[in-house]
Description:
By secondary structure, the protein is α/β, with parallel strands linked by helices. It folds into two domains: 45-156 and 282-348, FAD/NAD(P)-binding domain, CATH 3.50.50.60; 162-278, 3-Layer(bba) Sandwich (FAD/NAD(P)-binding domain), CATH 3.50.50. It has helices at residues 18-25, 55-66, 101-114, 162-166, 176-179, 195-204, 224-232, 328-348, and strands spanning 3-5, 8-13, 32-35, 40-51, 72-74, 88-89, 99-100, 118-120, 126-128, 134-138, 141-150, 154-156, 172-173, 187-191, 210-214, 236-239, 242-248, 257-262, 268-272, 275-278, 282-284, 314-316. Strand 3 and strand 4 (40-51) form a beta hairpin. Helix 2 (55-66) packs parallel to helix 8 (328-348) and helix 6 runs parallel beside helix 7. The radius of gyration is 23 Å and the shape is elongated. The protein binds flavin-adenine dinucleotide (FAD). Flavin-adenine dinucleotide (FAD) binds next to helix 2 and helix 8.
Amino acid sequence: MAVEKEGCDFREAPASAGMLNFLFHGLHRGVMLVNLITGREKIALNNVIIIGSGCAGLTSAIYAGRANLKPLVIDGLEPGGQLALTTMVENFPGFPDGILGPELIENMRKQAQRFGAEFKSGAITDVDLSKRPFKITAGNETYETLSLIIASGATARLIGLESERKLIGYGVSTCATCDGYFFRNKDIAVVGGGDSAMEEANFLSRFANKVYLVHRRSEFRASKIMVDRARANEKIQFVTPVVVEDIRDVSKGGVEKMILRNTQTKAVSELPVEGVFVAIGHEPNTKVFRGKLDMDENGYLLTHHGSQTKVPGVFAAGDVQDHHYRQAVTAAGSGCMAAIDAEKFLEAHPGL
Ligand SMILES: Cc1cc2nc3c(=O)[nH]c(=O)nc-3n(C[C@H](O)[C@H](O)[C@H](O)COP(=O)(O)OP(=O)(O)OC[C@H]3O[C@@H](n4cnc5c(N)ncnc54)[C@H](O)[C@@H]3O)c2cc1C
């Protein structure tokens, strides 16, 4: 027997210790529910679960909420996603004076809640996509859902310095398109030796007075044409082979210089810069989907016909499936697509 309850239904399973769970933790989605008359447990079945609460996940939640689907959003370890880590966002449409990243993301969250989205903390540790309903595990919690939107984003690789982490949004950036404009006529550095480092250095040279391309080797992983283009750019100066020992000055809340160590001579030097762009790649958050969904060679989810993955009923949105644009507005746009695709899928497949 299935009982409709506020947008999700409850399916029966044999009763066990779940009864105590219900009595102690109360009635909420994802907890075993016990019918005290039949003595059988019931598992909350969601229409749509959204993995991730960055701008892709939150936009999906707004659309799915307005479609009356009562979406359940699993926050992950970074509620709000990458925008929660940054300061001013000047290129999201609708804010002529810009808006702080955390404020923008909080607005989206409130907007989703207004339309009935529910949020749970915790990171997804396993998924069973072999049959519907899909089973989603976050630590000790298991959820079931008729459709799934994956919006788990991609994490920029960092050098690993404490100062780098503390200065993100205060002179350290992982996104030239997002933050280049803030560094007009300034001396800045790009760290990395791949195609994206070369591309970011070239892009940033439009704004900056000088761009130092800092790399730990004198050879580059980047294609020759990209290296040649950067070398031909008179605003770009190569600084190799050096590793970044520190970025100063955390105590002043901004970037003043980098401390570099030459990997051959071991000599330590200072490079005065006002901005540091770390361009050493991104890691899509797709580990739990390995072997279950199609990915490209770097682990980004592959989608077709909008946001569809190879499993019917599973959709992907935002940076987790886009290594090219990686912008808040494109993530939000694809979040909208995924919610509409999920809604159409549920319409066509109303039962299990
Ligand atoms: C410093 C910085 C500044 C930026 N500035 C701008 C800007 O000015 N303008 C602009 O357009 N873009 C900017 N960007 C890029 C923009 O933030 C991203 O393109 C956008 O956030 C991508 O959204 P998303 O929802 O796809 O992923 P993310 O924002 O990365 O969100 C991913 C979400 O998934 C969750 N998650 C991950 N793994 C799991 C898991 N296993 N289980 C559950 N949840 C999980 C995370 O907790 C997070 O909530 C900036 C990025 C950075 C890092």
